[in-house]
Amino acid sequence: MDLNETSPREWLYLTTPIYYVNDIPHIGHAYTTIACDVVARTARMTGKPVFFLTGTDEHGQKVWQSAQKFNLSPKIYVDRIMPRFRDLWKSFRISNDDFVRTTEDRHILGVQDALDRLWKKGDIYEGPYEGWYCMFDERFWTQKDVPDGLCPDCKRPVEQVRETNYFFRMSRYQDWLVNWYREHPESIRPESRYNEIMGFLEKPLEDLCISRPVSRMPWGIPIPFAKEYVTYVWFDALLNYITVPLSSPGGAENLKRLWPATHVIGKDILTTHAVYWPTILHALDLEPPRLIFAHGWWTVNGEKMSKSRGNAVDPVVYAERYGSDILRYFLMREGQFGQDADFSDSALVQRVNADLANDLGNLLSRVVAMANRYGEAGVFRIPEDYTPSPELLQAAREMLPEVPRLALRFEFHKALGVLWNFISLLNRYVDSRAPWVLAKDPGRKNELDSVLSDLLEGVRITAVYLAPFMPQTAIRIFESLKSTESLTGLSYQTDGVWGRLPKTLALEPVSPLFEKRNPDGSVQKEPRPSRQEPPEKSGGTPVLASPGDAPSTDPENPGQVQPEARPAKPEIDLEAFQKVELTPARVLAAEPVPKSKKLLKLTVDIGREKRTVVAGIAGSYTPEELVGKTILVLANLKPAKLMGVESQGMVLAAQTEGGVSLITFDRDLDPGSEIR
Ligand code: MSP
Fold first, then answer.
1. Running DSSP on this structure, what letter comes out for residue 544?
2. Whose C-alpha lies nearest to ligand 1, atom 8?
3. What is the percentage of the chain residues whose pLDDT exceeds 70?
């Protein structure tokens, strides 16, 4: 069920898995929780009532073993680890409405009540059990599952166990479940996961062993009708989704209002959620979940993340190094939510430098600095007769259905893509309207103020759409614009539309929103600009911009855009470099490009053929002096048209104070010689 299809007044009851406290949080936990937070915040901004639940799974073998390892009682141990999760979510600004611990009375009583009801109904029975038990995964396997004596899931040795246990009659509900899924194919997402579950349900379902003898593992919820047993940790944990609403004010009525829930989980815990859980719910006379969305796994530099490899990514460390909003952005932007994705410092640094520092951070600094500078005594006034730019207005209107719609479909990377298109549009608008040129002409004051009003509104609207993803950044932008929005009560309908800025703004220049990073993640010492201004209106950039030409840079705000020293770029491997075809090329002919002050059209010999390349070097070289030179050309760049001439490569040159300096060779050589 697509969340967009539920009625706006219907509750969104959204849950994360409750996390095991056998270890500290890692990036996988943060991923699920942040994704839920984005959905919760988005839904609230559309006006939907939301109840967002997360918590910790504190019973069971794994937790018990960890406590033993530290020589602590399990309760003292879980009390120490739980705050690591709770506090992490606070630092990530997770907007959960409740946090449940399975060791709380409200949960324990709810589980015992459910057990009693199922026992009285005959859905739980006592029976002999003989099977192969995997300690690590806390589950039994049959003989045929373990021909090699190893757990099929974790590959650890299994041990034979014979004991009396309690079973939930899961098999009884198999046909019902298959029918339910046939009728509700949209209730498991992505579709591949739905197919996986339907495949799983083709095999006969066994009853579920839901007890553990206290003699073997005492750390669990006592079974009310069998004191020498505790509840199997998964049976205990899944019930959190109903024990919380049931124990909150309103009890059963409250649950009725919220149910069915939307569960966001990792793909590894799909069977428990999509098979065990709906059958338990059905036995308790409750509907299956509205939606189960199983996301992919994060690998680290291409490797599976695990404790034994020592490559688990600690969200606390990354939040400290980069800030939690940046990590939120990266996790939501990189990869597709249903698929696996790879975590690497270089990918993170690239996102920070390009998307955040360059595109968004520079935009805010430029716009605020200009509004401050071109206002009267620092006070900027939106003109009385201001009419917004139709292009920007249209783009903002399109975001209103699109960004929340995509976020509520868990297509976070696409939602951010739409928002970043808007940010790019605003950046292009700064360049094309060049307020610093308008500012030189007192007769164009009204035009200047209208352009700045467009930009200020555009940036404010950007912050509204950004808020579910980067709440702290959104607040910083609102504050920089002296706009009065707060995260509570923020709404797409009222705040996401044009014209909400105060009419008079006394803005002060803002410190950069994001610091640029070196490839190792450290902050670049002197924040360097990196927005290279486009050469004329070419669209593509296969030539270097000539600095002597029209004022495409922003001289009023040089710190932001002047191409001085460049920041370091993320590391690449040799393979990436080998994709680039650099070749010495002899200039056979050169001529100006009509109507252009800075472009020259060169005919060059690259050894195997002749090429036409267009280069923005007219300010530094005359056509005559170029003919006969051997220069360096990037030969496998996609051709692009520049002022009507197709350029079939790019001439390489260094940017210098006075212009550009072409790369040449200190010996005679043949065009086309290999560059290594
Ligand atoms: N306690 C159970 C859930 C009970 S819910 C009723 C549990 N806890 S967990 O702490 O082990 O895992 C919680 C979530 O973290 C799972 O959704 C799991 O998929 C996710 N991740 C664990 N490692 C992960 C990655 N490497 N990448 C992404 N998510 C991963 O299971």
1. P
2. 19
3. 93
CA 23 to ligand 1: nearest atom: 10
Region 107-121 average pLDDT:
98
Cis amide linkage into residue 260, ω under 30° from 0: yes
pLDDT at residue 355, as a whole number: 97
**3-state DSSP assignment of residue 263:** strand
Burial of 603 (0-12, 13-18, 19+ CB in 10 A): middle
Q: Which two three-digit tokens encode residue 378?
A: 């620092």
CA–CA gap between residue 277 and residue 282 (Å, rounded) = 9
Q: Please give the distance, rounded to the nearest whole angstrom, from the Cα atom of residue 25 to the centre of ligand 1.
A: 10
- How many angstroms is it from 248 CA to the middle of ligand 1? 26
The residues near 301 (Cβ < 8 Å, ≥ 6 apart) are 311, 342, 343, 344
Query: Residue 467: what are its φ and ψ, rounded to 5°?
Result: -50, -45
98 — alpha (psi -120 to 50), left (phi > 0) or beta? beta
Could you tell me how far CA 151 lies from the centroid of its own chain? 34
Q: Is the pLDDT of residue 192 over 60?
A: yes
- For 282-317, the DSSP string reads HHTT-PPPSEEEEE--EEETTEE--TTTT----HHH
* Tokens standing for residue 513: 């929103």
How confident is the model over 131-151, as pLDDT tens digits?
898 878 777 888 888 999 999
Mention every residue, 6+ apart, whose C-beta is less than 8 A from residue 333: 351, 355, 412, 413, 416
Residue among 621, 564, 506, 43 at smallest CA distance from 290: 43
User: 275 versus 622: which is more confidently predicted?
Assistant: 275
- Report how far ligand 1's centroid is from the alpha carbon of 16 (Å): 9
DSSP code at position 605: E
Pocket test for ligand 1, best of 16, 265, 280, 300 (most atoms within 8 A of CB): 265
**Nearest atom (ligand 1) to Cα of 238:** 6
Give me 453's structure tokens: 């009003």
Residue nearest to atom 16 of ligand 1 (CA): 266
Residue 266 alpha carbon, nearest atom of ligand 1: 19
Query: pLDDT grade, residue 657 (50/70/90)?
Result: low
What letter represents residue 370's amino acid? M
22 CA closest ligand 1 atom index: 10
For 439, the enclosing helix (H) or strand (E) is none
Q: Look up residue 403 and give its two tokens.
A: 């960004």
Q: What is the pLDDT of residue 216?
A: 87
Could you read off the pLDDT of 430-480 as tens digits, one per residue? Answer: 999 999 999 999 999 999 999 999 999 999 999 999 999 999 999 999 999
Helices 471-480 and 445-466 meet at what angle, rounded to 10?
A: 160
pLDDT in tens, 16-37: 999 999 989 999 999 999 999 9
Q: Which atom of ligand 1 is nearest to the CA of 17?
A: 5
Q: Which of 295, 291, 336 shows the shortest CA–CA distance to 188?
A: 291
62 C-alpha to ligand 1 centroid (Å): 13
DSSP reduced 3-state for 581: coil
Ligand 1 centre distance from Cα of residue 370 (Å):
47
The residue contributing the CA closest to ligand 1 atom 29 is 28
Q: Which domains does the chain have, with CATH numbers?
A: 12-295 (3.40.50.620), 351-506 (1.10.730.10), 574-662 (2.40.50.140)
Place 82 in a pLDDT band, splitting at 50, 70 and 90: very high
- Ligand 1 neighbours by CB, cut-off 6 Å: 17-20, 28-29, 31-32, 57, 237-238, 265-266, 268-269, 297-298, 305
